[in-house]
Amino acid sequence: MNHDGVSVETARSWCRTVLASCMRASEPDPAHGLYAAFNMSRLALVAPCDAPPSPDAQRLPVPPGSAFRQELGELTYEKRQRGANAAGHERILYAVRFNVPDTWTDEFDRWYEEEHIPMIYGCRHWAMTRRYRLHRAGEGDASHLALHYLSDAGGLDAPELQAARQTPWRKKFLEQDWFTAVDKIVYFRLGTA
Predict the structure, then answer these.
(1) CATH number, domain with residue 121
(2) Of 55, 122, 173, 174, whose CB count within 10 A is highest?
(3) Are 130 and 78 in contact (CB under 8 A)?
(4) Which residues contact 157 (CB under 8 A, 6 or more apart)?
(5) Is 183 left (phi over 0), alpha (psi -120 to 50) or beta?
(6) Is 35 left (phi over 0), alpha (psi -120 to 50) or beta?
(7) Domain tally for the chain?
(8) Which InterPro entries match (predicted)?
(9) 115: which residues sit within 8 A by CB, 6+ positions away?
(10) Residue that wins the pLDDT comparison between 132 and 88
(11) Is residue 30 in a domain?
């Protein structure tokens, strides 16, 4: 099976050699954070590193023959469901990227943390969320990334998520082009080998 021009075996090998040098000690095997997209040929690797990257951080060499894109960012928010897997390696990863204009950043962050996350966490399947402020590589690149870890796909159709998408505050954002141009991808964690 190939994703982004790379076999799963090549991706795992790359994780264990190139990424291992910068991974957190609590992440014994970087390949545990390897996910495949549900409806497209794309892999995602979530690799928390010990030191927060700077905008000019050294980018890692990519797997040969891949259409690899590396996103560096700083963790700005984390929430865990009571009893959730502490490592954040749930079966499903829902990645949401926004390109938030500077003038909207503060309100966007407040909405996400004060309204959106508390509402969706009424559903037990939402296990953990990590939000990042990304270092943009170019104009038009995403500025914010939310990684939602779910224990069950039912969380993506939960009444709590539906309600969170119907609030007046969210409807205000829907009037903005940057909010509707969001990039959302559902991934499933690959088993380790």
Answers:
(1) 3.30.70.100
(2) 173
(3) yes
(4) none
(5) beta
(6) beta
(7) 1
(8) Dimeric_a/b-barrel
(9) 164, 167, 169, 170
(10) 132
(11) no
Task: Assign 34 to helix, strand or coil.
Answer: strand
CA distance 135 to 153: 30
- Output DSSP code: residue 190: P
Q: How many CB atoms lie within 10 A of CB 84?
A: 17
0.90 cut: is pTM over it? no
* Inter-residue long-range contacts of 161-166, CB under 8 Å, 24+ positions, other chains counted: 161/119, 161/120, 161/123, 163/119, 164/115, 164/116, 164/119, 164/120
Mean pLDDT score of the chain: 79
Give a yes or no: residue 183 inside a domain: yes
Span 57-84, pLDDT tens digits? 455 556 655 555 667 788 899 999 987 7
Q: Which domain holds residue 139?
A: 50-55+72-189
- Tens-place pLDDT, residues 142-153: 899 999 999 999
Is 50 exceeded by the pLDDT of residue 1? no
